[in-house]
Amino acid sequence: MVSAEDRRLQLKRQDELKERERLSSLGETTESARIDLERTRTNDVRYLEERNLTQAESKEAFEREYRQAERERDRERERREERWREKEFRKEERRRDREQKAKEAGSRREERRRDKEERRKEKEDRRERERYLMDMEERPKDRELKRQDRERERERQERERRDNQKRMMMLQTHAFYPMSMMGPSTPMPLSRAAPFVSPQAYPDSYPPIHSLPYYPPYGYHQGPSPPAAAYHPPYDPRQASINQAWQTNPVDSPLSAQYPTPGPSSASLPPTNPPTPHASHRPQYPHSGAQYSTPGPSSAGLPPTHVPTTQYPYRGAQPSTPFSRLLAAVPPTDISSSTSSWINSAAEAGAT
């Protein structure tokens, strides 16, 4: 049995051995690391030297190429400039040649123009000379001809004057004297213009009865007759009675008796055109050229109910009580008394 002391010594020896081995191995490692480091350093230095050398060489090569290219560029520029100078020189030469030719051509043209002008002048002078000679020959004959022309003109004027005088004497007879006073225009008879009849066809209901006659009689705008005391001094009772009759029944106006209605004029029949109620008491004029047709229920696609014929618009319906009958109802003896009294009585008869 190994004692504890021996065991401890044994372990210690083992530890020392291990330590030594470790140290020796560490020393080897350190040595190898040192050697590696040295090698690396050497390699790095060599690499750096090589790299610097390579860089220097490549830089030199680049500079060499750059200088070469620059020299080439300069030579090319010089060649271009030389070519441009040659071109400019040739252009200038051509321009000088052109100017020279133009100058020569101009001088030739000027020469030709001068020659032409001289020839023209010579011809003109020759003509002038010939004309002068002919004129000297013709002058006596020409004078005679002119004298004859003047004589003929004088005779013609004298003849015209005599003819005019004779004509005026003729016109101043009893039949023609007014004609001599008249100007040169065509005498037209004094007449009114022909009445205008519109080609527009009117419907049967036109013009509406309440618009007739087209304007009320004179004085209707004074309004309905108030009591006589309300009138101002210039008071016309006859006018007031006309107003009264017009307002009582517009058909019985004194003017409407002049425009009878076409058709049967029997008093028993109703009026031909009953007054159509309308908002405004104005005539319903036709619009722009449209043909009127009687409005019927839904006359959409149907032919018009009223085929318009050219008819003349009549002025009014047959009055139920004509104004002449109103006047006939008045006894004639009243006429001798006072004018206004029998007209007033006629108006009252019409109002009843």
UniProtKB/TrEMBL annotation:
Annotated Basic and acidic residues bias: 31-166
Which residue ranges does the record annotate as region Disordered? 18-168, 249-352
Feature: compositional bias, Polar residues:
249-270, 307-323
The name under which this protein is listed is: Uncharacterized protein
**What is the organism of origin for this protein?**
Tilletia indica
